[in-house]
Amino acid sequence: MDTKILEEIGLTNSEIKVYLALLELGSTSKGPLVKKAKIASSKIYEVLDKLIEKGLVSHILKNNVKYFKAAPPRRILDYLKEKKEKISSQEYEFEKLLPLLEKEKEILKGKVDAEIFSGWKGIETVFGDILNILERGDTDYVFGASKGDYPEKTRRFFDKYMNLTYKKGIKIKVIFNEDSRDYYKQSNAIKKHVTVKYLKQTTPSEINIYENKVLILLFSKIPIAIMIKGEETANSFKQYFNAMWGIAKK
User: Fold this and answer.
1) Which DSSP letter does residue 200 get?
2) CATH number, domain at 192?
3) Cα 180-117-152 angle, rounded to 5 deg
4) Cα-Cα-Cα-Cα dihedral of 206, 208, 209, 214, to 10°?
5) Each residue of 219-228: pLDDT tens digit?
6) Is pLDDT above 80 for 110?
7) Are 197 and 247 in contact (CB under 8 A)?
8) In sequence order, what are the beta bridge partners of 100?
9) β-strands 114-118, 194-199 pairing
10) Which band of pLDDT confidence, cut at 50, 70 and 90, is reported for residue 21?
11) Per-residue pLDDT for 202 more than 60?
């Protein structure tokens, strides 16, 4: 039986084994259940307690021995509805809390100078910030752009980013390392809004400058992004970019 859907709705592998074993055994004590479910005897009560909390198992006491029984499979639908109602309630409570969190963020805004993000999820977060902050007609300045240690994964990510910036009307001025010329040309992304130049060697990392922020990106096995915030820092990097743009080749 494919039990993937049961995992997706929130049951652990052990809970699934025990529940399915109980469906086959009917009302049973610990011994036969441990044998059927192939669960460690020391762990069985912990798993059963979790299933009881979810309303998927019941128990009775006979001659001082606990007997357990699986709830009908349809009970899983009720469990899902309860989860949905709980999520809706949490969403409502969070919406009430959100203005306070946003206010707190504004208070702390000037106190945070730099943040570090790691992994591809972290990279998605920082580029999501660019897409959220820049408006139609604004420019994302990039230099030191290269293919990184994982060129295909890097290309897929930036092709998606370039298409999103095109849809929003954000311009990109980018200075690639010379060895990335063919790599960029092979990209299938929309490029109408991208102006490109090349330098033999720019920087060992990619740098993005937008609004009052600077992103320093390292595309290694686990990519890292360092976000530096500050008008003065962003302006100094932009001046450096403009100097490099003046000597870079089309």
Assistant:
1) S
2) 3.30.870.10
3) 30
4) -80
5) 877 888 999 8
6) no
7) no
8) none
9) unpaired
10) very high
11) no
More confident residue, 146 or 177: 177
CA angle 131, 144, 223 (to 5 degrees): 65
For residue 211, the tally of other CB atoms under 10 A from its CB is: 15
The pTM for the full model equals 0.54
Q: How far apart are CA 32 and CA 129, in angstroms?
A: 55
The two three-digit tokens of residue 59, written as one number: 């128990």
**Strand pairing of 206-210 and 139-145?**
antiparallel
Counting DSSP H helices and E strands in the chain, the numbers are 9, 9
Residue 11, SS3 per DSSP:
coil
- Is the separation of the CB atoms in 80 and 55 below 8 Å? no
My answer on whether 81 and 1 are in the same domain is yes
Please provide residue 146's backbone torsions phi and psi, each rounded to the nearest 5 degrees.
Answer: -145, 180
pLDDT-above-90 percentage for the chain: 28
In a domain, 52, yes or no: yes
One domain for residues 60 and 124: no
**Average pLDDT, rounded, for the chain:** 84
**Tokens linked to 146:** 């290269």
Does residue 169 surpass a pLDDT of 90? yes
Beta bridge partners of residue 68, listed in sequence order: 28, 59
Q: Are residues 179 and 76 in the same domain?
A: no
Which burial class, exposed, middle or buried, applies to 79 when counting CB atoms under 10 A from its CB (0-12, 13-18, 19+)?
A: middle
| Mean pLDDT for the stretch of residues 124-148 | 87
Contact at 8 Å (CB) between 158 and 184? Answer: no
Q: d(Cα 177, Cα 200) in Å, to the nearest integer?
A: 6
